[in-house]
Amino acid sequence: MVNKKEWGEQQQLFKSIVLKPEGFEEAIKLCLELHAMVHSSEMSLIDAVTFEDELWEGLDEKTFRCMPTSKDVTIAWNLWHLTRIEDITMNILVASHAQVFNTEKWLEKMNVQVRDTGNAMTDEEIVDLSSRIDMQELRNYRIAVGRKTREIISEFKPTDLKRKLNDAQNLQRIFDEGAVLKHEDSKWLVDFWGRKNVAGILLMPITRHQMVHINDSIRLKEKYQSPCPKE
């Protein structure tokens, strides 16, 4: 298993070569390797224990749904949030495709009523989402999103990486589809993504953002030792 320090060093290497034409093939290879490690090995079918595998190992439903203190979120929310962001950025902004979320009745499968990234959720809304969401179907949704991302990345040409993501129609789609709410705590995301190019999205959120929330989820798993105070 690659450790976190090695993953960080590889991500820095990826950042240094991603826009160099002569480094394109290595950059794509690195991107796929980094992405695989922040998803389950079931997603990419690699023969390695990933950081997400480490999270799922021995993870029970109480720990998955628990918010230890009001200063925390939940593992359920972390996985929801980072997967929705991957789905939105890769499929709407990068590929101009339908979101994975809008196929195969994921809303019903996961037993949720929300569509957005969760940035503007209150503690009570986070706890409610976490108590309702189907743990296995969220995992399945995450696998489906990760595989679609890899398909998109594998089809890139060198010129794609510098392509700007400021297409007004795609940015508006994010709001129209309820993927990001027009709330002070969330609407900034659309402006943030719209200033990026494809390479920037691959760096953040597709690799780095995922590691941040997987790390936080592992911390929450380790922190949970007593009955959840917000059950």
Describe this entry's structure for a reader.
The protein has 12 helices and no strands. The chain has 231 residues and is an all-alpha fold. Helix 1 packs antiparallel against helix 2, helix 2 runs antiparallel to helix 9 and helix 6 packs parallel to helix 9.
Q: Would you spell out the secondary-structure blueprint of this structure?
A:
Elements: H1 4-17, H2 24-37, H3 41-44, H4 51-56, H5 61-65, H6 75-94, H7 106-109, H8 123-132, H9 135-154, H10 168-176, H11 188-194, H12 198-223
Mean pLDDT equals 95
User: What is the beta-strand fraction?
Assistant: under 5%
- How many independent structural domains? 1
Number of strands: 0
Radius of gyration using CA atoms only: 17 Å
CATH topology: Four Helix Bundle (Hemerythrin (Met), subunit A)
The CATH H-level homologous superfamily: dinb family like domain
Give the CATH architecture.
Answer: Up-down Bundle
**Global structural class:** mainly alpha
Outline type = globular
Major sheet size, sense and barrel closure:
none
Q: Determine the N-to-C terminus distance.
A: 34 Å
- At the first level of CATH, the class is Mainly Alpha
Q: Count of DSSP helices?
A: 12
**Helix percentage:** 55-70%
Question: Helices and strands, in N-to-C order?
Answer: HHHHHHHHHHHH
* Low-pLDDT runs: none
Characteristic key phrases:
231 residues, 12 helices, Four Helix Bundle (Hemerythrin (Met), subunit A), mainly alpha
